[in-house]
Every structure is written in structure tokens, then in C-alpha cells.
Amino acid sequence: MLKEGDDCPDSTLAVKGLTNAPQYYVGDQPKFTMVVTNIGLVSCKRDVGAAVLAAYVYSLDNKRLWSNLDCAPSNETLVKTFSPGEQVTTAVTWTGMGSAPRCPLPRPAIGPGTYNLVVQLGNLRSLPVPFILNQPPPPYPLRVQRRRLRRSLPRKADNY
After folding, report:
1. How far apart are CA 82 and CA 45, in angstroms?
2. I want to staple 63 with a disulfide (CB 3.0 to 4.6 A). Which of 1, 59, 76, 135 is the partner?
């Protein structure tokens, strides 16, 4: 039986991921939020530091493409006492580049497509949160230049 102040077992915690937008352009730097919630009935404690709380980006066929721990590993511990219902949030920024453990180079750019954000704390994994990376639109000046070019071309009636 869990007593007040004991370590939180996985069964008393829930993890989830949040994106700051449903879609981004290639080249953006999406912000992801990792949320840990005490869903139990008593206060308990758990390490939610950067060494154990991770965000992952997966392809839709479940290929691991990136983690915030790959290129910036941490030994940081943050033992937090959670009251029932209390949440801890941690934000991370993704550069849009792929990565693997120990950050081997070169790091591949991730192209347009639909991907999943998954948050993990120890053995606890969140449900996947889908997000979209779109091809960037053409630069604004290029669209304006095309419009101006069309207007400046001579019309047949102007040739007489």
C-alpha cells in the first residue's frame, strides 16, 4: 500500500506530450511540452529530471528519429513530491534535425510528413501526439515578383 511521501510507482503517474502547434514548416523549431501528472490518491515523489524524462519524435511507421537526450544528455535529477492531481511540465525545443544516441554526425534533416511526439519517463510512455511538417511556402518576395511580372507583360492589344 502506497503511503504519503513514498516513491511514486508507475501506476500513480501519467505522462503526456503537447505540441505548441498542430503543424510546422520544415526549418521551424517546434516546442514540445512534457507533462507528468500524479493520478494517484496520495502524495508521492519521483525523479522527473532531464536524465530520465525524454521526448521522442517517431515516424508513422514507428522509426525513432530524434530525442532530446541524444545530443544533450544530462545527469540532472529533480526529485519532485507530487500531490494528488499535481503536474510538472518541462519544455524542449526540437531543431528539426534527426538524432541518435551519442549524437553521431552528420545529423539528417527531417523532411515534410506526419510524425508522432512521444514522452517517456522510465517505463511510462505517453500516447503518440501527431504533428505535421510542411514544405515551406515560397518566399513572399518571389510571389510578389511573379505577380508584378505577369502585370508587366505586354497584352496582345498593346502590340498594335
Report:
1. 6
2. 59
- Rounded (5°) CA angle 69-74-80: 105
Q: What are phi and psi of 56, to 5 degrees?
A: -130, 145
Domains and their CATH numbers in the chain: 10-159 (2.60.40.10)
In which residue are the cell numbers 503537447 written?
Answer: 18
Q: Show the cell assigned to 36.
A: 507528468
Nearest 5 degrees, angle CA 110-CA 100-CA 132? 30
pLDDT for res 74? 86
Cβ–Cβ < 8 Å for 98, 107 = yes
Q: Given its phi and psi angles, is residue 122 left (phi above 0), alpha (psi -120 to 50 degrees) or beta?
A: left
Q: What is the pLDDT of residues 100-122, one digit of tens each?
A: 999 999 999 999 999 999 999 99
> Is 8 in contact with 40 (CB distance < 8 Å)?
yes
CA angle 77/80/82 to nearest 5° reads: 155
Please, which pLDDT band fits residue 147 given cuts at 50, 70 and 90? Answer: low
Q: How many residues does the chain have?
A: 160
Written as nine digits, the cell of 82 is 507530487
Mean pLDDT of the chain: 90
